[in-house]
């Protein structure tokens, strides 16, 4: 644990099963993590899969304040995924739940298990649009313009 809370952002997505419920339940599970509080949440967005096939995704981003260190937070997020039935049969496979640690304060982390900022977040409308909704200072207009053709629509408030 860190002595001072860190603001982090988590991307949520699901495209198998009851996707809206899966994302909402994941937010509730994040709220139950030790020394962690959800401080903001985006709307839910419907997006087409990127680099994969399968049904559309429901995506969102939450901002959290946490004292968990980044590796512990990642481990906790992966446990939430497993509890939701997440399997990893092949890269970009459809999933019941996907949780990505997008940003962890101003940290730059590169390890075999964790890269922060998330390495592909700047290429993905399903990350940038909901992140811009809750933290507009973290996403540039140029980044948003670069992802305009990716097909994203707001579904409802999370």
Helices and strands in order:
Elements: E1 6-14, H1 19-31, E2 36-41, E3 43-47, E4 57-66, H2 70-83, E5 98-104, E6 109-110, E7 115-116, H3 125-134, H4 141-146, E8 152-157
Antiparallel strand pairs: 1-4, 1-5, 2-4, 3-4, 3-8, 6-7
Biggest beta sheet attributes? 6 strands, antiparallel
Query: Which runs of at least 5 residues are low in confidence (pLDDT < 50)?
Result: none
Indicate the CATH architecture.
Answer: 2-Layer Sandwich
Note the overall shape: globular
CATH topology: Alpha-Beta Plaits
- The arrangement of helices and strands along the chain is EHEEEHEEEHHE
CATH class: Alpha Beta
- Kindly name the structural category: alpha+beta
What's the CATH H-level superfamily name?
7,8-Dihydro-6-hydroxymethylpterin-pyrophosphokinase HPPK
Distance between the termini: 28 Å
What is the averaged pLDDT score? 93
Helix content: 25-40%
Total domain count: 1
- Rg over C-alpha atoms, rounded to the nearest angstrom: 15 Å
- The number of helical segments is 4
Short overview:
With 158 residues, the chain is an alpha+beta fold. The protein contains four helices and eight strands, in the order βαβββαβββααβ.
Structure description:
This protein is an alpha+beta fold. The chain is 27% helix and 30% strand. The longest helix has 14 residues, at 70-83. The relative contact order is 0.25. The model has no long low-confidence stretch (mean pLDDT 93).
Task: Give the tags.
158 residues, globular, 8 strands, 4 helices, alpha+beta, two-stranded antiparallel ribbon, Alpha-Beta Plaits, six-stranded antiparallel sheet
């Amino acid at each position: 644990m860190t002595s001072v809370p860190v603001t982090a952002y988590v991307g949520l997505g699901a495209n198998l099963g009851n996707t809206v419920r899966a994302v909402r339940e994941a937010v509730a599970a994040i709220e139950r993590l030790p020394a962690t509080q959800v401080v903001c949440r985006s709307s839910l967005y419907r997006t087409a899969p990127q680099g994969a096939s399968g049904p559309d995704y429901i995506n969102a981003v939450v901002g959290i304040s946490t004292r968990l260190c980044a590796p512990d937070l990642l481990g906790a997020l992966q446990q939430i995924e497993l509890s939701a039935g997440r399997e990893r049969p092949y890269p970009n496979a459809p999933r019941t739940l996907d949780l990505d640690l997008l940003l962890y304060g101003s940290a730059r982390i590169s390890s075999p298990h964790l890269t922060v900022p998330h390495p592909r977040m700047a290429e993905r409308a399903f990350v940038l649009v909901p992140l811009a909704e809750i933290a507009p200072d973290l996403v540039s207009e140029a980044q948003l313009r670069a992802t305009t053709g990716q097909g994203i629509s707001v579904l409802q408030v999370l």
